[in-house]
Write a structure and sequence with these properties.
By secondary structure, the chain is of the alpha/beta class. The protein contains eleven helices and ten strands. The protein folds into two domains: 7-218, Alpha-Beta Complex (Spore Coat Polysaccharide Biosynthesis Protein SpsA, Chain A), CATH 3.90.550.10; 230-314, no CATH class. The model has no long low-confidence stretch (mean pLDDT 93).
């Protein structure tokens, strides 16, 4: 039994039996040993939970809890609520983590009294993957070696187009996470866009480590590689609405930051909505012009309205 848990790693598990063993071993083999690993089985219908339990039988640091399928946000929230570590890290069940990640992040946060520390990631392709999806997680060299105010850092990273919302890019002080009342909004996609932005704006001390600790697996049929759908844009609009509420409650500087965050993700989301139904595209246009008229780029409105019919004409 671990007397002092330095870090809690929360892993949401849903139908990733082909990957969960490799993912879990990348955590159990961390050079930081004083950890707990909370795997939340979010209603998996494959053998993933059995694989986790087999490994847990050999490592007392692993705790498997199960719930009905409620989505990634609810699974992460359930894991965070049961965590006991001084620091908190959210890991996905199909990716990998360098073995010295948690130790280096823990030491950095303790030494500099940080609310959280951020780092980079690299992508790798799964076998026989049928997608050209790519994402740049490289931010090394763009930040100074100092503790940043979170809101100011958020604005800076947006200004250089290097802000990334993924939860697994951040190692977080648990007391800060709870005191700021942070959590993942249930029932939506792109939940990181809300939680991470709020985390930055609530933080007073943020640091960085210039290493790509996280190895992101690009595979078919994952949330990020599935075709853009109504639920994608509905989730982005929900995130925008929640951020807007936060900005209105917290004064002019925060409203300004919130609008920059919304602008950062809502324009690509509108652009990617061009394949949706005509009625849905009209609904999207009405919402964004009503709530965010100064944030939407005209070219994205043109794409939203006309790319779909024009593409049909070309065919």
């Amino acid at each position: 039994m671990i007397n002092s848990i330095k870090t809690s790693v929360v892993i949401s598990l849903y139908n990733t039996e082909d990957y969960i063993e490799q993912t879990l071993l990348s955590i159990t083999h961390q050079t930081l040993h004083e950890i707990e690993i909370i795997v939340v089985n979010d209603g998996s219908t494959d053998n993933g939970p059995d694989i986790v339990q087999q490994i847990a039988d050999t490592d007392s640091r692993i705790k498997l809890i199960s719930q009905s399928n409620q989505g990634l946000s609810a699974a992460r929230n359930a894991g965070a609520e049961q965590s006991c570590g001084d620091y908190l890290y959210f890991m996905d069940s199909d990716d990998l983590l360098d073995e010295d990640t948690l130790e280096l992040c823990y030491n950095k946060c303790v030494a500099d009294n940080l609310d959280f520390v951020l780092f980079d990631a690299e992508s790798f392709m799964d076998n026989n993957v049928c997608t050209d999806f790519r994402m740049d997680y490289h931010r090394a060299g763009y930040m100074e070696e100092k503790a940043y105010n979170g809101r100011q850092l958020l604005e800076y990273l947006i200004s250089i187009k290097k802000y990334r919302a993924s939860a697994w890019l951040n190692f977080i002080k648990s007391s800060f996470y709870r005191n700021a009342s942070l959590s993942f909004y249930p029932g939506i996609l792109h939940e990181d866009e809300l939680c991470t932005a709020l985390m930055y704006m609530e933080a007073s001390r943020v640091g960085k480590i210039d290493r790509a600790f996280f190895k992101r697996r690009i595979r078919d049929n994952s949330i990020m590689t599935k075709p853009f759908s109504d639920k994608n844009i509905d989730s982005y609009l929900k995130v925008a609405g929640e951020l807007d509420k936060y900005g209105r409650k917290n004064g002019k500087e925060y409203r300004h930051t919130v609008r920059r965050v919304i602008n950062y993700f809502i324009n690509p989301a509108i652009y990617n909505s061009w394949r949706l139904s005509f009625s849905k595209r009209c609904s999207i246009l009405w919402i964004v012009l009503t709530h965010y008229p100064c944030l939407i780029q005209p070219k994205n409105i043109i794409v939203l309205l006309f790319k779909s019919p024009l593409s049909k004409l070309v065919k």
